[in-house]
Predict the 3D structure of the following.
Amino acid sequence: MEIRNILTFLKVAGTQNFSKAAEQLGYSQSAVTVQIQQLERELQTQLFERIGKRVYLTEQGEAFVYHANEIMKVVNQAADFSGEKSAVKGKLRIGGVESVCTALLPELIFQLYQRYPEIEVVIKSGTTTELVEMAKRNDLDFVFTLDRKICSPEWICAFEKKEEIIFVTDARENTEERAIQEIVKRPFILTEMGAAYQYELEGLLAERELLIEPILEIGNTETIIKLLKKRMGVSFLPEFTVHKELETGKLARLYTDLPGVTMHSQLLYHKNKWLTPQMKSFIKLVRETVSSI
């Protein structure tokens, strides 16, 4: 049984498409078809059924996913055996939600490079749902998310921290506590739909029959911070994204009578994922660095 065929099987299972799997693996579609056929002959069972342009795992195919992941786990462990004795190197694929990519990852990647310059880092951003699906297909090593707490036997949490989400505005504004009915009338700059903490805010406001009509929605936290410094209005952001601005007095927290919103930043990896030396190094760095922010 060839390892190449097992890897191809997992890629087809994840993409549910032979051509997409071929593109991601760098093979021709016919090569992928041949590899799957070889594997099916060896296992003496059909792993996929084709309906239209998509392929679906058969019952036997779904059962083989576990065994395929276990095989690749052992293969990766063997491949890393000698590497653990030398310099830490190799590819590290991290998926993060926008606020994490903007506020946390730049400093983490810089420090990682200082310690382990031979690690090649690939960063992908997206929503929690998108990143989790990518990790399930083994397109990511880690998911670094900011959301409601994810607690599932399918995922291992390497790091977790409660994060406060706050109203923030220019430091020259009057930041004494105000009724939320007054706050929502202010010009608001919000992140794009998809941020879990924004949904939480909308739910709290809906209970009071209130609604924010933002003057701008944008997915880039850095842009929001720059506009807040120009006294453009108010935003609702994770405290860690504006930590430096709050400390230096460039921005200020705006207090309201609305209940506080707390999310969880979590560094997750799939339970079947083999922890490579570079993954272990990143976990150690996150635990040392993010805990103090």
About this structure: The chain has a mean pLDDT of 89. The two ends are 48 Å apart (CA to CA). The first helix runs from residue 3 to 15.
